[in-house]
Specification:
Number of helices: 10
Shape: elongated
Number of strands: 0
Order of helices and strands: HHHHHHHHHH
Radius of gyration: 20 Å
Structural class: mainly alpha
Mean pLDDT: 77
Length: 213
């Protein structure tokens, strides 16, 4: 009895972890692209100016002033709108036969926008810029970026499945059921983007009063 209780769950857990590692290797690669975008954006942000960030704000949510001077509702709307744009792009790419090829670029662009803001804050405000990023921008941006990376992974998989339906080999799953699962997964990602926007809003509410740039 003890052997069943204490040994089997541990073995099952190891098996599940190994399976998850193989299953999520594509997600890991998409996260690496995201990280690469952050690094490239941070390096580019050193030479960026405030006007550039204002122009890119709608896409990348890179305008830090909106969190301090326009209220928490504006911070939520800005963050959520930025996420929805990327999620919509990923969703549409997953509906085409060739779109999955380009879905890998979306996490990179999302990371680039975040890195651009971080690089600008550091070059303009030094240590205070880093603290601002850690307290206000990073929590929501980190969560949103992971959601976009996961959505891009599903987009690539769905695009590949659509392409497989045109191959003469037998189709293993129902295309209608597959599309329904894809739509439901995107709705879940949309909800997670809204949650990330709430986190962004709460961080702005709690910490934005500290900074006077």
């Amino acid at each position: 009895m003890k052997k069943v209780i204490f040994s089997n769950p541990l073995k099952d857990k190891v098996k599940i972890n190994r399976w998850n590692l193989k299953k999520n290797i594509l997600l890991f690669l998409f996260c690496m692209l995201l990280f690469g975008g952050i690094v490239y954006g941070a390096l580019s942000g050193k030479n960026a100016d405030k006007e550039l960030l204002n122009r890119l704000d709608f896409m990348f949510n890179a305008n830090y002033d909106i969190r301090c001077s326009k209220g928490i509702l504006s911070a939520f709307v800005s963050s959520f709108a930025s996420s929805v744009i990327f999620l919509l792009i990923v969703f549409l790419l997953g509906l085409s036969l060739w779109g999955g090829i380009f879905s890998a670029a979306v996490p990179f662009l999302k990371g680039y926008g975040y890195g651009l803001a971080v690089g600008f804050l550091y070059s303009s405000h030094g240590l205070w810029g880093i603290i601002y990023n850690l307290l206000i921008i990073l929590p929501g941006a980190f969560m949103c970026s992971l959601v976009i990376a996961a959505a891009a992974q599903d987009s690539l998989k769905n695009s590949v499945k659509l392409a497989a339906y045109f191959v003469k080999a037998a189709v293993r799953d129902d295309p209608q059921i597959r599309m329904k699962k894809y739509l439901i997964s995107m709705l879940w990602y949309l909800g997670l983007c809204a949650a990330a926007a709430v986190v962004d809003m709460l961080c702005s509410l709690c910490f934005s009063w500290i900074f006077k740039f």
